[in-house]
Amino acid sequence: MQLFAGPSELFIDEAEQKRIAELLGNAFYDYYRFRASVSEFTSWRNSLSALANQLRYSNVKDHGVVLEMQLPLSSARLDAFVFGKAPAGGDNAVLVELKQWTEAHSSDFDECVEAFLGGAIRKVPHPCVQAQAYAEYLRGMHTGFYAGEGVNIMPCAWLHNMHPGAAGVLVSEKFSGTLQRVPLFLAHDADKFKTLLHETVGAGQGVPIMNRVLGGKYAPSRKLLEHTAAIVSGEPRYQLLDDQIVAYNAVLAMVRRAVKDKRGKAVVVVRGGPGTGKSVIALNLLGVLSRRHINAQHATGSKAFTENLWQILGSKSKGQIRYFNNFGQAEPNSVDVLLADEAHRIRSTSNHRFTKKHLKSDRAQIDEMVDAAKVSVFFIDDHQGVRADEVGSTALIRETALRHEARYESIDLRTQFRCAGSDEYIDWVDQLLEVRKTGVQTFHSETFDVQTFETPDDLDLSMKQLQSEGYGARLVAGYCWKWSDPDSDGRLKDDIVIGDFRRPWNAKPDARKLADGVPPAQFWASDPKGAGQVGCVYTAQGFEFDYVGVIWGTDLVIRNGTWLGQVAGSRDHVVKTRSGARFTDIVRNTYRVLLTRGMRGCHICILDPETRAFVEKRLV
Are 204 and 305 found together in one domain? Predict the structure, then answer.
């Protein structure tokens, strides 16, 4: 998707006539169905007018220009592309990252600087780092830019308001390697920018090249588990973007400080919604820190995710891939870096049903973790707690850091890679369920495939059709039906019965004997044989599929415009008996998790008629 694509002459004319911001604003509304912010309009007016003037000065004619292009399967948008042929031959595209900055300040995070954005000084990637990341992402994700056969990308950054005297940080030795690969242009660099344009796209003929790229296809969905071993061993499979770069380097900066300060502790919170890459960042950090011979440990509260990592990485990884409750007996500061993924699943204590009496403790689980590590990094979504005894939250982590007199850093992730990169869909789900106010009341499914079905049979048929086309698709459901033990032969019982529809849940976590074709619960999400069962939130959380089919039961319904958690509609004994007043919030979070497991689409069957009508009214 892009907000503008056309000949360079058209772009220059629209900018000179002061129409370009309004043109992009209308395209933005047509696509997203809400208005762009005032600050975005201001940015378009200023930066795109400056770009148009530069192209006119550079005599850029017969070229293709694309503005505000959304990266495949991501919510990030790049500013501008200029397409054309090089005088020496070859199809090229100049990727231009535009900034209105007038000054920038140093940051102790690698690849980052500090700049005034959104009313405050914020840590952000160096503009050339950002441009290079976009280029690398497209080379790996879009057929039009594949190495050796696609259009060559020349990334650059242009800070059209910044004078050389204010750019000392941006051109410092720290960024010399990046600047050799990605040119940086400032306010007085019109001639240098002109030279780059002439050398890369000076021969014109850019519209056919642009159209070929726009007609290209996205690469298959990048599923984390399929690439885990390569990531941890150091082979790059995921290009970090924007705020992910900041989060990654924030942790590395904290580690450097901890090495220098033998007594100090540090706590980092990396907070983001579904699909923002929290687990990708955690595993990238595990790999790079391990290669640097730093004692880094990865931990989760999820049996399914942890055992999938063990399976992929081998039995030797068990000393490095742990559970949250493994740190109660650890010596203080015995771990250099603890990477706590899905920190919303932290429990009040580490006691469980198998804990021996003499090892039981009233000590808070989060205190055990922070005590054990010099640097603790918590990857969290505050709206994914789905169990009554899950207490992890940003507030709890911040309070714990203060209590331990630890240096504290918080990073918010906004760029997301699930749901076809549709921020609007995530915002719509959150507004729909009243998890947070986003203002997105309706959703148009042009990019992310959202459909509702009258019956579970119809939903099941859509999943099977997608599976036959080669997509990974899974059925999931709210915990509204009995969950039986397998029979003596290890066969699963069809517990989910709705009219003519009959399906079993995935196997129970403690099932010892399972029939052929039935994967253990922890591998339901990753094993192709799991397609024959319906997953619950406990086996689906933390995983992603190309398409997810959600059976929405009667544990959460709408009545007179208000969400109501119905205890009678739930078969989750723990949630029913221990959540108390939190019951509605927990089941609301449950459906938020289920509705956001898809990379390309979410198909839904809602059993309660009033709730179905309420949701369908908000789908256009």
Answer: no
State the amino acid at position 436 in one-letter form.
Answer: R
Contact (Cβ atoms closer than 8 angstroms) between residue 80 and residue 46:
no
Q: Bridge partners of 204? A: 85
- 192-238 confidence digits (pLDDT tens): 999 999 999 999 999 999 999 999 887 766 676 777 877 887 777 67
Query: What distance lies between CA 588 and its chain's CA centroid?
Result: 21
Q: How many helices (H) and strands (E) does the chain have?
A: 20, 24
pLDDT reported for residue 179: 96
The reported pLDDT for the residue numbered 503 is: 97
Q: What is the DSSP letter of 473?
A: E
Please give the distance of CA 172 from its chain centroid, rounded to a whole number: 31
Q: Return the half-sphere exposure (C-beta side, CA atoms, 13 A cut-off) of residue 359.
A: 13
Residue 585: CB atoms within 10 Å: 18
Residue-wise pLDDT tens digits, 72-114: 878 889 999 999 999 998 999 999 999 999 999 999 899 999 9
Instruction: Looking at the structure, tell me whether residues 172 and 312 fall in a common domain.
Output: no
The closest of 76, 11, 7 to 44, measured between CA atoms, is 11
* Residue 219 belongs to some domain of the structure: no
Residue with tokens 């918590």: 378
**Sign of the four-CA dihedral 124, 125, 127, 131:** negative
Characterize the bridge pairing of strands 184-185 and 152-159: parallel
> Vertex 166, ends 164 and 169: CA angle to 5°?
100
- Measured CA distances, 555 to 436, 535, 584, 591 (Å): 20, 16, 9, 10
Q: What is the pLDDT of residue 536?
A: 94
As for how many domains the chain has, the answer is 3
Question: Is 65 domain-assigned?
Answer: yes
566 and 499 inside one domain: yes
Paired tokens of 606? 């809602």
Rounded to 10 degrees, the C-alpha dihedral 137/143/146/149 comes to -160
Q: 3-state SS of 218-270?
A: ECCCCCHHHHHHHHHHCCCCCCCCCHHHHHHHHHHHHHHHHHHCCCCCEEEEE
pLDDT in tens, 513-541: 999 999 999 999 999 999 999 999 999 99
Map residue 437 onto helix, strand or coil.
coil
Q: Are 229 and 312 spatial neighbours (Cβ–Cβ below 8 Å)?
A: yes
pLDDT at 263 > cutoff 70: no
Instruction: Residue 114: count other Cβ atoms within 10 Å of its Cβ.
Output: 17
> By residue range, what is the domain housing residue 433?
419-616
Mean pLDDT, the chain, whole residue set: 91
pTM above 0.85, yes or no: no
Instruction: Say if CB 269 and CB 212 are below 8 A apart.
Output: no
**Residue 611 CB: number of other CB atoms within 10 A?**
19
Sign of CA dihedral 200, 204, 206, 209: negative
Whether 150 and 238 map to the same domain: the answer is no
Q: Spell out the alpha helix ranges (H) of 142-189.
A: 176-181
What's the rounded mean pLDDT across residues 119-130? 93
* Residue 32 pLDDT greater than 90, yes or no: no
User: What kind and span of H or E run contains 600?
Assistant: strand 598-606
Same structural domain, 405 and 542? no
How does pLDDT run across 467-484, given as a tens digit for each residue? 999 999 999 999 999 999
Last residue of a domain, one of 352, 382, 413: 413
Q: How confident is the model at residue 4 (pLDDT cuts 50, 70, 90)?
A: very high
Same domain, 454 and 558: yes
